[in-house]
Amino acid sequence: MAKRIDVQDLDIYYGKFKAVEGVSMRIEPRSVTAFIGPSGCGKSTVLRTLNRMHEVIPGASVDGQVLLDDKDLYAKDMDPVAVRRTIGMVFQRPNPFPTMSIFDNVAAGLRLNGVKNRKVLSETVERSLKGANLWNEVKDRLDKPGAGLSGGQQQRLCIARAIAVSPEVLLMDEPCSALDPISTLAIEDLIHEIKEKYTIVIVTHNMQQAARVSDRTAFFNLAATGKPGKLIEIDDTQKMFNRPSEKATEDYISGRFG
Amino acid sequence: MTSVTGVSAPDPSPTSSVASRSTGRLGDRVFSGLSIGAGTLVVVLVLLIGLFLVTQAVPALQRNEVNFLTSSEWTVSGEHPRFGVAGLLWVTVVSSIIAMLLAVPVGVAVALFLTQYAPTWLARPAAGTIDLLAAVPSIVYGLWGLRQFGPVLVPVQQFFAQYFGWIPIFAPNNGLSGNVSTIFVVGVVLAIMILPIVTALSREVFAQTPRAHIEGAMALGATKWETIRTAVLPFGKPGVISAAMLGLGRALGETLAVTIILATLAPGTPWVASLFNGGETFASKIANNAGEFDTPQKTGAFLAAGLVLFLLTFVVNAIARIVIERRKAFSE
């Protein structure tokens, strides 16, 4: 579990449009890396290339390398389905499967992997829900629809669903943007706990959140509308928020633009 | 789109706050008057048709000397009318079930292909072509089924009769398996007739599957088919059910094509389970005898059959409603 990600000279395209240019970075295992930057700078796009979810959009393509412990995710013989099984993802809006119960939602990934043994399933579901700090709230109603939970609970359910398959990496695309402050706090606490086991990458618009949860921060920006986004710098979160190397980072973090 | 059978996707019921917030302005009053009037009109029409059927049918039913639901006799004139709908019910339901069994899986598969697999340049014209199937008049289906398509199906019938003849529904039935005018052929033609409805409605619900659910499944490492199974099909299920019920409603009531293709049986022919047999559906029975409605008693007898069809379609739709409502708890 928990592997290192190396991104090397990554260009990302939507059709002919180059959305992101020349990203190279290293994401350490068992740490939280936050992606920050103004809207449209490509941070979510970069995140989605890390588990090959970018290419599900028609016409989308990638040029460059993403290495997971030296294994190229974009190698010719690499199956995107296999990549997504080892790299979990949590989305901006909680998206539990509406027709499934809480139990089935968490078990969905295991079932896709062919796990049928009821005992294994229920043990993993319990462990994952505990891991997502949701067990105590839902243990008496595992057979109820997941869509009946509150937004924050739904998002933790999605995190439980993602960690149930024991991924190497967990990607989070603005996981708290649709949640109230208390639910947000619950998710942030959760991120703190699970970073012991996983490599976590989180996209956030909330600067304080990046400062609170992450060990390292990557700042993305774009030169102008219509130009590709770029990685300006990546460094320890402490350093990024106190004395960043780049002027643009300082301007953005201190609220002078964006 | 679905008011005919009442199996539309459940509309949000108008909240009373909207109605009570009426400002009393002219435009507001005219519009609410019009919409209330239109809603009432539909209900009144259905009630009036039901009332018409009942008032016409009851006198004839009172004089009937056999059990209307279990008899297959059909003598409607004279002092001692003996008529029942068992035979009609059998042919109607069986031909419609054949149509459903064929059209729903094919329709759903086509809809999945169009929404999930086909490239855009192909999906649009292909969907249009399938919609064209709905534009073919039923008389054309009837003639085509009798002249062109039926003969193609005869070898299929004979195959089933030869190798699966030991199953009652595939019994050769004195060589009628070599005939075009069978319940089996009617069922297949009905399947083609309801295919566009099933496909079009399924396509619509599948296309509405939220991107978030599809991506949620894919991010768990679901393959294309697994994504369809975990996200698209569960989301579309109520829509597919209502599509199937709409198709069933049409198949149950289809008149012209059935009348043209299906051979009527001589009175007194004993009932057999075989699909390779003639017969009459409610609708084709009435159509075949439309020229004979000369006495109220005769007319009443046929309208009684019509009433059963009306109720049958109603029950089918009610079941569809219940299924859809039960699943609503599990959707957003």
- What number is the mean pLDDT of chain A? 91
β-strand number of chain A: 10
CATH superfamily caption of chain B: MetI-like
| Order of secondary-structure elements of chain B | HHEEHHHHHHHHH
Low-confidence stretches of chain A: none
Radius of gyration of chain B: 23 Å
Main β-sheet description of chain B? 2 strands, antiparallel
Structural class of chain B: mainly alpha
Classify the helix fraction of chain A into a percent range. Answer: 25-40%
What is the architecture of chain A at the second tier of CATH?
3-Layer(aba) Sandwich
Shape of chain B: globular
How many structurally independent domains of chain A?
1
Within the CATH hierarchy, at the fold level, what is the topology of chain A?
Rossmann fold
CATH superfamily of chain A: P-loop containing nucleotide triphosphate hydrolases
Q: Can you identify the CATH class of chain B? A: Mainly Alpha
> What is the count of distinct domains of chain B?
1
Mean pLDDT of chain B: 87
* Oligomeric state of the chains in view: heterodimer
Strand order of the largest sheet of chain A: 5-4-1-2-10-9-3-8-7-6
* CATH level-two architecture of chain B: Orthogonal Bundle
End-to-end CA span of chain A: 36 Å
Can you put this structure into words, describing what you see?
The complex is a heterodimer of chains A (258) and B (332). The model of chain A has no long low-confidence stretch (mean pLDDT 91). Chain A has helices spanning 43-49, 80-86, 102-112, 118-131, 135-138, 151-163, 181-194, 207-213, 237-242, 247-253, and strands spanning 5-14, 17-27, 32-36, 60-68, 71-72, 87-90, 169-173, 199-203, 216-222, 229-236. Chain A has a ten-stranded mixed beta sheet, sandwiched between helices. Chain A has one domain: P-loop containing nucleotide triphosphate hydrolases (Rossmann fold). Chain A has ten helices and ten strands. With 332 residues, chain B is mainly α. Chain B has a single domain, classed as MetI-like (MetI-like fold). Chain B is 68% helix and 1% strand. Chain B is built from eleven helices and two strands; from the N terminus they run ααββααααααααα. Chain B has helices at 16-20, 26-63, 86-117, 120-135, 138-163, 183-207, 211-219, 224-253, 256-261, 282-288, 296-328; strands at 74-75, 82-83. In chain B, a hairpin with a 6-residue loop joins strand 1 (74-75) and strand 2. In chain B, helix 3 runs parallel beside helix 6 (183-207) and helix 3 (86-117) runs antiparallel to helix 8. Chain B is globular, with a radius of gyration of 23 Å. Mean pLDDT of chain B is 87; it is low at 1-10 and 15-19. Chains A and B meet through helix 2, helix 3 and helix 6 of A and helix 7 and helix 8 of B.
